[in-house]
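Researcher: Here's the sequence for the chain we discussed earlier.
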Amino acid sequence: MIVTRQKPMKEIILYLEGKERVFIFGCSQCATLSQSGGEDEVKAIAGELEARGKKITGTAVLKEPCHLLLTRREIKKFSRQLELSEASIIMSCGAGVQTAASLLTHPVYPGCNSLFLASTLRYGHFEEKCSMCGNCMLGYTGGICVITGCVKHMINGPCGGIKDEKCEIGDGRECAWISAFKRLKARGELDIIRRILPPADHSIKSRVKHLKVER
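Model: Thanks. This is the structure I predict for it:
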């Protein structure tokens, strides 16, 4: 899931300068789990904006704001309110904001900041596990992403800054490469980690990505 955090109200107010009638959308998926764009958060921001003199033309929590066809169908239910609106706030990740912006004729503004792609450890507790680098190494590192876990993004073993198996940056975390080594050792697969991998292809991340899956 994509972890998001609600933007400061002062930034949202700045977006809405000169605009009085506002529609607010939330997200029933990632932003709801992040507690940054679900029913409660949409209701709260609507109340704050009304207290600041804005007229809320309507609110809705979309099923998947990043899903173009589904969002197009959902927002049709609010066509009259949206026609009366001068702007919309989308409380979702950036993909949801961009999807809504492609469908609405008035200005669309983000209500959240997108932080990272996360694994859910338990309800309300998330951890970044993947950097979406485009060249997955998990098969070589025991299922531990060293690109994400290593602050230096080392791809062929740890740096020389390890102390007591901890990363040198001082936050107490175990070196990602040490974690990978321990897991592979326990599985009797240390031969995998000895393979020398080519330099990372950063051009993969430098392009806008598209994927169309054909059946």
